[in-house]
Amino acid sequence: MNTLLSKSKYLDGLQCPKYLWIQFHEPDRIPEIDPVTQYIFDQGHMVGELAKRLFPDGVDISTDDFMDNVRQTERLLQQRNPLFEAGILTCGIYSRIDILKPANENEWDIVEVKATTSVKDVHLDDVAFQKHCCEKLGLKIGKCYLAHINNQYVREGELDPQQLFTLQDISAEVEESSIGIQDG
Q1: What is the mean pLDDT of residues 52-70?
Q2: How far apart are CA 105 and CA 154, in angstroms?
Q3: What pTM, to 2 d.p., does this model score?
Q4: What is the pLDDT of residue 183?
């Protein structure tokens, strides 16, 4: 039985504890992803790719191989560049961070990218789990941000990622959402 608790399983468990139990104990009962859900996932990935343009000096970490992603992350953390899709694995918990960017000499900021136009409660739980994973690994997290779509942006010519996204500081809300996250 796989006992690794990922961010997506954590969020599933918050929304429906029975579904989390099924994921661990009866995974064959979970249906395949339907085309509509897959389309939504694909749109989210496209928005994530656009958000990487907010940090041109960032390093894209391959997500093709789970453990290779984690190893690359560990190595690249030393270089202090923004990291895209950083894999954090520690103490039986795992999260992939959309954007992990250096804040100063010894802190990192988390930037979660969403294809929505506002902050939702589930986003706060999402980032709270990411922050927990990072801190368990020994990273000091400064601020947490949500990069979401600016619905006031009107494209004129070349797409401007700085205008397309609103970078909202959600640090205080994430701290509140972190209450109750415990080590297993």
Answers
A1: 94
A2: 37
A3: 0.88
A4: 54
